[in-house]
TrEMBL record:
Recorded GO MF terms: DNA-binding transcription factor activity; RNA binding
Compartments it resides in: Cytoplasm
PROSITE patterns per the UniProt record, alphabetical: S1 (PS50126)
Species the sequence originates in: Muribaculum gordoncarteri
UniProt KW Amino-acid biosynthesis keyword: no
Protein's name in the database: Transcription termination/antitermination protein NusA
Entries under HAMAP family matching the protein: NusA_B (MF_00945_B)
GO BP annotation list: DNA-templated transcription termination; transcription antitermination
GO cellular component, one term: cytosol
Pfam families, per the entry: KH_NusA_1st, KH_NusA_2nd, NusA_N
Major location category of this protein: cytoplasm
Record-stated family: Belongs to the NusA family.
Subunit structure: Monomer. Binds directly to the core enzyme of the DNA-dependent RNA polymerase and to nascent RNA.
UniProt keyword Transcription, yes or no: yes
Length: 418
């Protein structure tokens, strides 16, 4: 009696799992039948001559074995054959040799080991099914905004649990500098990727992705959610500064004003979520010159010379505007370049022509590569970019030694003197 109860309870527990994990009835029956067949195949060597009938409404299962009737004494495989006398004795008195005899198998009679094997097989298949469902649910949702409760934090990542008990992993590299989470705190992020390696589902989320900023604006600005305002481009340096270009499909709506809100009411919530990341909202335009000019705000540009094929822009500014265009830590020019898709070279507007300018990469034989990279990071792409910038500003922005900057200036000046 105890064994019968174990099997019944096991079926009931499967039904409970089905309700919890939203597994449909058809799948439930299929998985349970397959589990029985796998265990029976190991016991009998095959399941081809077995009929497994699930009765989900009654919570039980019936198993029938179809055997070939052979003459007495000629049974070679008791799992596929039965002697004529045994078949007639098993409530089938009119059966003949060569016909099929069906008998019911009482699974509980095979003992506790068989029941244990069935339970383990069933649990394994349920786990696989659960992982497949999670993978299918999240795979097409990259970029979607999700929320999770902080469950545990390690040195390299934080584990979040969403409302359906799914595990979300936030790597430290995808967290905003300054993020500090406490257990039980609710954290928002976007789904970055969903991996399935060796049947191990990993849902990685991000707070540094450009998409995270997009989703926050969609959440806070109804006009974006309703499609009246479109986000055309986003550029971020997480935790520091961001630029976002927006346009309105309704002439009556000011896209910048709508995104900022009255007295900054809409954008303040986003800034707090991003750990006080400064956000510049600008009007998008298809005119690249005007777009670059707006992207470099608050600097005022004197003139721009574009190379649309190479996606390069030579921007000329008065000397006092150069630091504004570059920005602290070169953040402004980096974000402007990323937002517009143009490599932006900044020049002092002295009235000189720069047709004979030379890219810094041409000086690798005389200037160390790391020095060139430091200069490029602050927007100095060419020799005249460097020469147009005040010496003190070069030292400060590029974080270089005075002797190094003097040596670079000397090399570049010599090139043009020649």
């Amino acid at each position: 009696m105890a064994k019968k109860e174990e099997t019944t309870n096991m079926v009931e527990r499967f039904a409970e799992f089905k309700e919890l994990k939203h597994i449909d009835k058809t799948t439930m029956i299929s998985v349970l039948e397959e589990s029985f067949r796998n265990v029976l195949a190991k016991m009998f060597g095959t399941d081809e001559n077995l009929d497994v009938i699930m009765n989900p409404d009654k919570g039980d299962v019936q198993i029938f074995q179809n055997l070939e009737v052979v003459p007495d004494g000629e049974v070679t495989n008791p799992y596929t054959q039965i002697s004529l006398s045994d078949a007639r004795a098993d409530q089938n008195p009119e059966v003949e040799i060569g016909e099929e005899h069906t008998r019911e198998i009482i699974f509980e009679k095979f003992g506790r080991r068989a029941i244990l094997n069935l339970r383990q097989t069933l649990q394994s298949k349920i786990l696989d099914l659960q992982k497949e469902a999670i993978y299918s649910q999240f795979k097409g949702r990259e970029g979607d905004l999700v929320s999770g409760e902080v469950y545990q934090t390690w040195s390299k990542e934080t584990l979040l649990i969403d409302s359906e008990e799914n595990e979300l992993l936030l790597p430290k590299s995808e967290a905003i500098p300054g993020d500090f989470f406490r257990k039980g705190e609710t954290v928002r992020a976007v789904i970055l990727r969903v991996d399935n390696k060796n049947n191990n589902i990993r849902i990685t989320v991000s707070r540094t992705s450009d998409e995270f900023l997009r989703r926050l604006f969609e959440l806070e600005v109804p006009e974006i959610h309703d499609g009246l305002i479109n986000i055309r481009a986003v550029a971020r340096i997480p935790g520091e500064r961001a630029k976002i270009a927006v346009e309105s499909y309704d002439d009556r709506i000011d896209p910048v004003g709508a995104c900022v809100g009255v007295k900054g009411s809409r954008i303040h919530g986003i800034v707090r979520e991003l750990r006080n990341e400064n956000i510049d909202v600008i009007n998008y335009t298809s005119n690249p010159e005007l777009f670059i000019q707006r992207a470099l705000s608050p600097a005022k540009i004197s003139s721009i010379r574009l190379n649309t094929e190479e996606k390069r822009a030579e921007v000329f500014l008065r000397p006092e505007e150069v630091p504004l265009a570059i920005g602290k830590g070169a953040l402004n020019i980096k974000l402007a370049s990323k937002l517009t898709g143009y490599v932006i070279d900044v020049y002092r507007d002295t009235g000189e022509e720069f047709n004979d300018d030379i890219y810094l990469d041409e000086f690798k034989d005389e200037i160390d590569g790391w020095v060139i990279d430091a200069l490029k990071n602050i927007g100095c792409i060419t020799a005249k970019n460097v020469l147009a910038m005040p010496r003190d500003l070069l030292i400060e922005k590029a974080d270089l030694e005075e002797d190094t900057v003097d040596q670079v200036i000397s090399i570049l000046k010599a090139e043009f003197e020649d």
